[in-house]
Predict the structure.
Amino acid sequence: MADAQSQTALSALRIDRSAAPMKRRRRLRWLIPAGLLVAVLVLVAAAVSRRAPTVRVAEVREPLPGEQQTELSASGYVDSRRRSVIAPLVAGQLVEVAVEEGEAVRRGQVLARLDDRDARVVLDRANATVRASEAQLAASEAQALNAQRTTQRTRNLARQGVIPRAQLLDVETAGLATQEALNLARAQLAVARRASEAARLQLSHTVVRAPFDGTVSKKLANEGAVLAPAALTGTNLGGIVELVDLHALEVEAEVSEEQLSRIRIGQPALIFLDALPERAFPGQVATVRPAIDRSKATATVLVRFQSVPQGALPDMGAKVSFLRQPLPPGELAAHGQPPRVPASAVVRDAMGAAVWVVKDGRLTRQPVRVGERVGDELSLTQGPGAGTQVVVAPGPKRLHDGQRVKVEAKGG
């Protein structure tokens, strides 16, 4: 009994070594995920620290002529005061288009011809009717002359008492009928001649001519097309070509209704064409259309070129600067004036004035020499050229040379 109790006491004092590996496995099971989580957090932190900051940019620009005299600006498109879709006045099949797109034409020049066989048949029939009416008139004239002579002889005989008075009345009545037949023949001849003129006019309408000097801007139909005497915008029912007078170009600019009070007829203006951005063209306000586009709350102002520039075409984009007073001819060019940047793009520190240039998504610090301030801009007497992208209002961002940046999208 005592031996059994001794063995129980000794077994209670023995260390159970089978539990140690189990505890180690539990610790490893928690340490591995924790280590992975720490590694991920380190990688995310590194990626965030290397992420390219977003910056807002603007371009260095050359000053435009007349900026100091500009009352307001507006955008629009070039159009022509004479621009028409040329269509025939009669229906028919197109047998010839005598011009091509881009060809200059003179007033009265043949543009196209329609099949004229039906019109010639109608004209021949009208001419035949005229000849028949002329023959009928000649016969009526002869009958009237004969009736006049018979009436005169009958009157002489009646005075002499050779014939009775009743016979004289019958002859005079017959003479009046002959005269009325003569009048009818004359009227019928006039109608036949008018019908012949109408047929000749219809035949002339099969030849389509240019109504004014211009340039063919579009060819709308080819030989074989059957045309109706009409043309609707967007749907061609009879148009053959579109003709534009390139010497009567003007700009249709849209001005908000709140700004209309600042526009006056005859006001000087400068026109800038998107296709010719390096030049400014003097113009003048011709008229303001007396209507407001309610969807946009704008009115159309027509600005005419003082001299239509070579290369200007209808539907070109344009910008108009409405001036307070005309510019001297020497001020129409802005050449020689230093470029400008937004004032907020110029940073000043211990190294002097500079701008942050963005090229290929990376930053470069470029020193500048600043000139006069013009509104919200500064002129640069030394620095990057026009068209260079610079960071606007860098603020507290920590920027450095070679840093990769992301350009903020417009409107964002």
Observations:
- The CA atoms of residues 65 and 334 lie 5 Å apart.
- Residues 69-81+246-325 form a domain with the Elongation Factor Tu (Ef-tu); domain 3 fold (CATH 2.40.30.170).
- The chain has four domains: 54-65+336-407, 69-81+246-325, 83-114+206-244, 117-204.
- The longest strand covers residues 276-288.
